[in-house]
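Possible regression after last week's pipeline update?

I re-ran a chain I had predicted before the update to compare outputs. Posting the input and the new output here so someone can diff against the archived version. Not blocking, just want to make sure nothing changed silently.
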Amino acid sequence: MKKCLLMSVAVLVTLTGIAQSQRSSIQIAKLKYNGGGDWYANKTALPNLISFCNEYINTNIQSNDKVVDVGSPEIFFFPYIYMTGHGNVVFSQSEAQNLRRYLLSGGFLHIDDNYGLDQFVRLEMKKVFPELEFTELPYSHPIYHQKFKFPEGLPKIHEHDGKPPQGFGLIHQGRLLCFYSYESDLGNGWEDQSIYNDSEEVRQKALKMGANILSFAFTQD
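New output (post-update):
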């Protein structure tokens, strides 16, 4: 699929004053991968984030998030793909190439470390972009300054190792293709409150940061 096709989907959800009736709804998806890692983690996360975004940043995203295989041509139907898990990740060469084409065609990948993903996903993303390195984004990056302001970068949602949260990116020709939220665990904060018993303040931080990521993914040049 051409870049213009994916970008035309993104235009449908630009955060403007367009009337609801004039915008077509889109879908976002969770990435399914091989290797034994729990790609299916955080089952209530995306539906809750979608509901929050539709209410607070004027998107029109379908409430039923989808699952898409990393090697499937259907990946090109989704302007935003969410990837999470705790364990092993394996991309075949054909899957890596498919993901590369998707990202270079205008798609956006959000990798959300759910604790334990880091050592695996960095190796596999090297198959996708051997020429690129994850770079920590400065706090001044627009992804932290959409509708909701995060002047100190990613919020800390779950402690895990007690390390500070970091936001990394893969950037190609000035465009952020992939945002990697590390040691933050946004997806846990998006989950139903009863699952982790996070305070409403913590959940709101996670949801607002998630809304910023979607807003940025849909509107960047």
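Follow-up from reviewer: compared with the archived run. The helical segments are 3-11, 45-56, 93-104, 118-128, 186-190, 193-196, 200-219. Marking as no regression found.
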